[in-house]
Amino acid sequence: MKSRESKGGTPRGEIGGITSRLAVFAARYSTLLSILVLAVLVAVGVYIRVLPAIRYGLELDANDPWIAYWEAEYFHQHGLFNFQGLHDVKSFWWPVGRDFTRTDSLGVSWLAAATYSIGAHFGLTLKEWLALFPVFAGAAAIVMLFILVYVVTGSKLAGLVSAAFFALTPGAIARTTVGFVEKTGIAVPVVALAYTFFALALRNKGLRSMIYAALAGITGGLVGYLWGGYHVVTLTFSLAFLIDPIFAKPSRERLKVYAILSLFYIIVAAAYPKIGLKYFIGSLGGALIASLIIYAIEVYIENSPLASRILPDGVTPRFQLWLFIVLITAAFISVYSGLVPVSKRLLAAVGIRNLSPLVESVQEHQPTSIARIFQEYGLALLFTLAGIIVFAARVVRGSIKLYQAVTGSMIYIMALFLVYANKQLAYFTQMASFYVTMAAGLAVADIIAGSVMVSEPKSKRASRAASQYEVRDPLRVLAGIFIILVVGIGGVYYGVQSYKTNEYRAPQILTSGLSPLTLLSSSGQSRIVVPLNKAWLNALDWIKNNTREDALIVSWWDYGYWITVNTGRKTVADGATLNETQIRALARVLTGDEGEANYLLKNVFHAEPNNTYVVFYEIFEGVVDLKNNMTILYPKPEAIQQPQQGIPGAVIHGFADFPKSTQMLKIAYRIPPFTTSVFFTPYSSLYIDSSGQQWVEFPGFVGQPEENVSRVRNTLIYKMAINGIYALPNVAVADSSCQAIINRTQAAVMAVAAARSTAGGYQIQYLFPESQFKSFKPVAVSISCPIVNQVADRYTMLAVVVFIYQWTG
Questions:
Q1: Are 499 and 28 in contact (CB under 8 A)?
Q2: CA-based angle 776:780:783, to the nearest 5?
Q3: What pLDDT shows up at residue 370?
Q4: How far is it, in rounded angstroms, from Cα 588 to Cα 664?
Q5: What is the three-class DSSP state of 167?
Q6: What is d(CA 543, CA 553) in angstroms, rounded to the nearest whole number?
Q7: What's the pLDDT score for residue 353?
Q8: Is the pTM of this model over 0.85?
Q9: Do 510 and 56 contact (CB within 8 A), yes or no?
Q10: Contacts by 120-128 with C-beta closer than 8 Å and gap 24+?
């Protein structure tokens, strides 16, 4: 039985007057309300993203942003169109060098230099201006997502849902936080703009459609200047071309749109040396050309009498659906077989985990758990899954426009694909969040479609207030209200979680990579401490002020950018991980004995004696024993497994380069490269503590067998740590947090703490240098103590220690 309606168009009956009035009010003032809500979302999103700068200062975070700063400084100093000095830069990847025009996306750095006059006007340095770019990108992405979803769906509520999810979810915030100048996050608003132009190209006709197609191609091509993941845009457009005939007969007009888009996309993208025409001929970019050719053939079939004899019914939706499945299967086989060369990262994204030990060693290349995915963007994913069902129903009913069907399909498919890719690699979290938040907005539009009807006034001169609004589907109105409540509650939850995360997110160079620590006071109260320290800053200052300008620094690749950008000294590897052969040689230097290190430094890295330095660091716990006049330091232990009956416990010593040495050993092929555990390898040992409990230790500094212990103690970085601690009183570079403590003792002792299952805590085992180096000498040991506790005349501390050894040849 139909409900009756009042003269004002407000229904009575099941839905109730209040709900109806709210719906009509929201529809009537939707533009104003949308602007207000969007402004609040942008403000809150920006505040959460800029919070680390408010707490800890405006600084670059992590490792990769430092190379973006170096590139921006280059453009600022040498001119925006001077690329000559970027072709063969020997400061990076010595002695081979690096061509930045072919190995990096320079757009972010170029843009920072080009717009720096704005930052300078506000008294910012170039580094500080660049550090703000992720926040700018995050704010722009919030707005662009609203615009994109609104253009595709016509629903402002749907646009606000996408904007809200991107503004507040941890997955979307992580790479758009101040200081973390990571190219993925900065490319997001440009990708959204390209998709907006694409939707407008399909939505419009004639010349306007062609203009939008060209703009979609141009903006899509520019993504490659900003981010190496331009493949995502290529695949999305290719999908659209193949999906189109499922929803409508192929047409010449849309062929023109796709051809113009492809032309401008190829011209703009191929102009960048890193991409080039080769990408569209012999790599993944060929998918775009192949999809366009297939669509052109289908247009020919629809318009050719000869072709109609082969396919009497033309290109039907069923035919196209089967063709789509066949082509996707063929593409997967081509990639899997190596016929189409793609990066190992992309192979892993589709479940082909054929990674090298080096690629496996990168943290963001580790799999992501389902629980983690839901922490990052789970609510938006649930909306997406529900939206796919409703979307499919609308397609079957035919109650959806072509541009909505094509754009919606490509976004839904890419969202699901990137969630799957995110499950394989943590690297895809940001892009998966972006596509899922887009898809969630489309889902909301599909769910509430047709809930409120607007009747425009007959006279164009009449005011908008004369429009009539009436509720057509009360259930959809209730669904809309429910969605607002769910998104509101979920948004608050995500916002609070993101706030708490960023509140304690200090730049890595200020924490040496240490995560926030939860400490207990004597009264049992817990507090979170951000372990700020100057160990790396002081080490970098020492290198800059005490080595020659042409000095070579040998460190694990994680710190290459920090070292070269802040000191101007050459390094042999960095975060680009370009040369696996060179990184393997580096791993063998650090995990070999002194003789092998000498050989590789001389013959592979062409290092100059007395002008080459080995740098690494570790996190130590320490005790200042005033009674015995010595400082005892031991790598911070982590008991990852307690002993059980018949099963030993497991301890890893250290929180920095010692745990990373597991990957060094794999890359160097000293242990099986794809082993899942470093325990029970030649670099671990079995230790029995005073209570009779057995522990497997890594690195195996103490215990049995003696062969393993001797091997560990003579491995370069482990031996350097032992000898370096004993040299600490003579070569310490200590800040105020440690200086007063270290000065109160005359000796420093290296130890390891073997874990115990009893209440005794740790059992200290002292380590003494078995022999002195012949070709290396400690010249500086930078130590900083973020945590110091004093009880009477006894100090305990957490210390970050950076070791700097000179190679004398």
A1: no
A2: 130
A3: 93
A4: 8
A5: helix
A6: 9
A7: 61
A8: yes
A9: yes
A10: 124/58, 126/69, 126/72, 126/73, 126/76, 127/59, 127/60, 127/69, 128/58
